[in-house]
Amino acid sequence: MTTKKISKKDIGKLLEGWSRELTVFVPSKDKGVTEMAKWDGKDTGFLEWYRNTVIPAKSSFLPAMEKMFSFQKNNDGYHLELSPDQQKRIVFGIRPCDARAMVIIDKVFTDSYEDPYYVSKRKNTVLIGLSCTNPYDSCFCTSLGVKPAESADVDLMFTDIEDEFLIEEITDKGKELLAAASVVKKATKADDAKAKTEKAAVSAMVIRKLDIEDISEKLQACFTDKDYWEKVAAKCVSCGVCTLLCPTCYCFDICDELSKKQGTRYRSWDSCGFSIYTQMPMENPREAKWRRVRQKVCHKYEFYPMNSEVIACTGCGRCIRLCPVNWDITQILASVPAEQPAKK
Amino acid sequence: MSVTDICHRKKFLAQGNIYLPHIVVIDKIVEETPSVRTFHFNFKDEKLRKRFTFESGQFAELSIFGVGEATFCISSSPTRNGHLECAINRVGLVTNALHRLGVGAEIGFRGPYGNTFPLELMQGKNLVFIGGGIGLAPLRSIIWNVLDNRDKYGKIDIIYGARSPADLCFKYELASWSQDKSVNLVTTVDKGDKNWTGKEGFVPTVLEQIAPSAKNAVAIVCGPPIMIRFTFPVLEKLGFIPEQMITTLEKRMKCGIGKCGRCNIGNLYVCRDGPVFTYAQIRNFISDEY
């Protein structure tokens, strides 16, 4: 693969060029909580402060709240109207963990019935990855096969090499985008070598480890171990942060909003951490908190791999660093009992 | 042979966007019990009326625009086409809104979704239908389906229970099944009134008394989760193996197509892998998660 490079001070120019025809999303802290948001056209300060966004980049494809269609009641009955979503976009700066998460959840949205909202956003977006330089101590991506400074799950991958970024063209879509950019130069062998060193160095900075060997089987064996799950769930406050802000959590709710004779159907993120999530008229299979915590853990490390042959976790560490009660998935999984408990 | 091997899935009537409902019009409402009404409806678009097909066991998402969408099994049989029927218990936001609607009202319809009852597996077998309360709704589709092709099946037992005589659904059809000599219908209620001539007691208990033979038989169970949980052990006691025990499950659902996440039992999604399952598929989870 031939590589290219760009000077960090030219990133503004590069984004500016793209933003003439495309909507460019970059890491932003405008709303107080960091997330991918529409670029204001000048500020590239994120290159300094950005470690990872609090709201994962999945929000660019599965927004926290999204209009599905609107409806109106006339004399001849109901009329439904879809709002077109064909905006061509660039998401610049996605971290390798969040990019892998998109590949993991793609299956859900393309399997048997294609989800039009998600799929059109994925198709219309060029994903540009940015290597980590400073992982959090809650990060454990390397244990899940994600490398913090490299990714093949994006269209273009930018690796930080001091004053420049080395650019790898992963897909044709990425290559095309780069072709017209005059600020991009050919990389030298020395640049490639620098990037290689950097990739290894950042990987080594991820010190938290999670042993995922046989994790699916271990969880299967302790599924009915109520004592274990009650202990694990004891301090959980069911706030939903570890799911809503998880890059591989995709659950959603569908709700209507009505004003007079017209209204809108929305979908919004939902979480298995909430008891109403599974509430049925007569009973609720997951009313007890420990059942909900078990669902969350088992879905990611047992059920999802059973269905899709991939663990639904990329080790981004959000569920650890954003948890208000210091719940720690790596500790939980390390403490899964190896043997099935004796039947009581 | 498992249910998933032989059930096939009819693809949704594509109209580009899978979340966009078709408009259907209510053309009849039947009062079943104090809280259950059967809604008969048909597509507003005449072309769709002709194109639409479904099979027994499948479900749909019905929506009241401005209130929301909820999941209902189709309780009419594809052998009696012309319109669709859903028996709906008034319990929540959407069902209460539905019960306020009259003939001529327009609602949204997405479907049919989910797999179907394994008709091929059932052919040539004795069938034991076990239903509780509103759980007769999905069974009714397959019961009519079977009765309309009566010579393809063996002996038919129907064990149906409800809390009280007034809570029995489809009373007019129970009457015709009880007169059908090829059908053994047993009805039971928790507590009868002075006119009650059926049995008294919970469905699993009555099932044990009736004790249908497991030989060359398939049991099809649907009812409230607690009834389902207690019925499987009785069937096992009667000699049914998990592969001979079929159920259709209900969970809170939003999308109906395996995306929104909430209807899983272990790694299985009720909407995508079901709603029809064999006991063999779900026994590891059902005592604990359903």
Oligomer: heterodimer
Order of helices and strands of chain A: EHEEHEEEHHEEEHEHHHHEEHHH
**Based on helices, strands and strand pairing, what is the structural class of chain A?**
alpha+beta
Low-confidence stretches of chain B: 1-8
Proportion in helices of chain B: 25-40%
Radius of gyration based on Cα positions of chain B: 18 Å
Greatest chain-chain interface?
A: A-B, 51 and 43 residues
**How many helices of chain B in DSSP terms?**
10
Helix-strand blueprint:
The complex is a heterodimer of chains A (344) and B (290).
Chain A: E1 3-7, H1 11-19, E2 23-28, E3 35-38, H2 46-49, E4 65-74, E5 77-81, E6 89-94, H3 96-110, H4 116-123, E7 125-130, E8 156-161, E9 164-169, H5 172-179, E10 185-186, H6 189-205, H7 215-221, H8 226-233, H9 241-244, E11 252-259, E12 262-269, H10 289-308, H11 318-321, H12 329-334
Parallel strand pairs in A: 2-6, 6-7, 7-8
Antiparallel strand pairs in A: 1-9, 1-10, 2-3, 4-5, 4-12, 8-9, 11-12
Helix pairs in contact in A: 7-10, 8-10
Chain B: H1 3-6, E1 22-31, E2 36-43, H2 46-51, E3 59-64, E4 68-73, E5 84-89, H3 93-99, E6 106-113, H4 119-122, E7 126-132, H5 136-147, E8 156-162, H6 171-179, E9 183-189, E10 199-200, H7 203-210, E11 217-222, H8 225-237, E12 245-248, E13 264-265, E14 268-269, H9 270-273, E15 276-278, H10 279-289
Parallel strand pairs in B: 7-8, 7-11, 8-9, 9-10, 11-12
Antiparallel strand pairs in B: 1-2, 1-6, 2-5, 3-4, 3-6, 12-15, 13-14
